[in-house]
């Protein structure tokens, strides 16, 4: 399957985060680029983070979205307002939307009101906002939820609203912390559909998510990172970092139906997670 790497969208260098004196994650380095595929209009990027509990995935996501400060390192994202090739800017809160596991929504706003609120910083006219909201509600199967409050929505509907909300306020990037946890089979299909929609709605859209489900990560992502404790000089450390990276495109496993090779990768990932 032919593809090409284009501009850098996300650049993380030597990132560390500590709570008080306890280092939680350290020396995280990664680069994610826009990928363009031959004969495919709109690809989007999907990046998955796997790792055992407590290794620092949520901490990393909070630092990545500017919700907590880092103790060292830098995070740059593509500056889409600057037309220069590869123009980048340091990330700040609000640039990258984070959908947490609870899909927190405004209790006193209807779906339409909440979405209007997340478009407040855009330059769209009121009528354009209305039609954008209508369009998304339709595409995401939320038409009959337009005037409902969060407590009137199902878990899946809440989550989709939270995703659209973050998309509206942050555009190109969206980070989801364990979006599949605690969902039933039907809801999992819905979130998968949401991933597809995200990829199709803009070429540069990048979805970053964490999960405990290795097979889902393999099915959805083109890049998989394992966050775990590194072993240095034979000794297991107690801070999280990227201990392995799998580029499924390079491995010929991206954008394909599940086969024997995916199973092999799944076994390798389990092993990598067990030792870190
Ligand atoms: N606000 C906090 N203050 C102190 N320690 C924290 C805080 N949040 C998380 N931790 C610790 O950081 C480590 C990583 O947690 P977390 O990022 O939630 O991991 P994961 O998402 O991979 O399960 C854990 O040991 C956790 O107890
Ligand atoms: Mg977590």
UniProtKB/TrEMBL annotation:
Keywords: ATP-binding, Nucleotide-binding, Transport. The keyword Nucleotide-binding applies. PROSITE patterns: ABC_TRANSPORTER_2 (PS50893). Gene3D superfamilies: P-loop containing nucleotide triphosphate hydrolases. Residues 10-254 form the ABC transporter domain. The keyword ATP-binding applies. This is ABC transporter domain-containing protein. It comes from Flavobacterium ginsengiterrae.
């Amino acid at each position: 399957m032919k593809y090409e790497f284009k501009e850098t969208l996300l650049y993380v260098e030597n990132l560390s985060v500590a709570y008080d004196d306890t280092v939680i994650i350290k020396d995280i380095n990664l680069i994610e680029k826009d990928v363009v595929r031959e004969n495919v209009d709109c690809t989007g990027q999907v990046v998955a983070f796997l790792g055992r509990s407590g290794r620092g995935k949520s901490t990393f996501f909070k630092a990545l979205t500017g919700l907590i400060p880092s103790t060292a390192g830098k995070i740059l994202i593509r500056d889409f307002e600057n037309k220069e090739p590869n123009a980048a800017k340091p990330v700040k809160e609000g640039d990258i939307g984070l959908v947490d596991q609870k899909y927190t929504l405004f209790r006193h706003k209807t779906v339409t009101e909440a979405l209007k609120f997340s478009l407040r910083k855009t330059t769209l006219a009121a009528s354009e906002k209305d039609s954008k909201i209508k369009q998304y509600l339709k595409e995401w199967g939320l038409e009959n939820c337009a005037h409902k409050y969060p407590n009137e929505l199902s878990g899946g509907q809440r989550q989709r609203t939270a995703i659209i909300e973050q998309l509206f306020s942050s555009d190109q990037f969206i980070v989801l912390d364990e979006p599949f946890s605690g969902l039933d089979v039907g809801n999992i299909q819905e979130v998968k559909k949401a991933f597809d929609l995200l990829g199709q709605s803009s070429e540069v859209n990048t979805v970053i998510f964490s999960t405990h489900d290795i097979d889902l990560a393999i099915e959805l992502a083109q890049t998989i990172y394992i966050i775990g404790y590194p072993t240095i000089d034979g000794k297991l450390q107690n801070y999280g970092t990227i201990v392995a990276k799998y580029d499924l495109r390079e491995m010929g496993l991206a954008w394909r139906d599940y086969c024997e090779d995916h199973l092999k990768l799944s076994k390798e990932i389990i092993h990598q997670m067990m030792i870190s």
